[in-house]
Task: structure prediction
Amino acid sequence: MPGRTRIDSLRRRNLDRRALDLEKAGPRPSKGWVAELRSSLGIPAAVVGKRMGISARAVTKLEAAEKEGGITIRKLEELAAAFDSRLVYGFVPMHGTFDEMLKARAQKLAIAIVEKTEESMRLEAQGVDTRELQARVAELSEELLHDPKRLWASSEV
Result:
């Protein structure tokens, strides 16, 4: 499955590049994207409503729903079309990149597994030195990265 791993890695890097672009947009404006866009372009709610086939009041309700996080993606796409725009939607990692997130999870899980094994070995007076433990963690981390599903199925971390 090395080919699959490489493809997944390329897909993650592509997601990381795209997330970086999304990150540049910054957080959602306090009054929401729709109200901010409509206000900054000077477009009355009635005009947006006419383009969507709804009332001005319905537009302001959609703006409120977006602000509160209760709007559907489909409605956001319809609103975007009314502004001669398109909706861009995605996820941005809280820290670093998706690739780094996966590697950190693999490392954390590998440490938990190795420490658990080391504890058993210590109880049997078969402890191993620090360098060997670090090598085991590195090896297990790599192995886990080749099968990422194991990272999320484990209750170790």
User: Anything to note?
Assistant: Residues 26-87 form a domain with the 434 Repressor (Amino-terminal Domain) fold (CATH 1.10.260). Helices lie at 2-23, 33-41, 45-52, 56-68, 73-82, 98-123, 130-145, 149-153. The chain has eight helices and no strands.
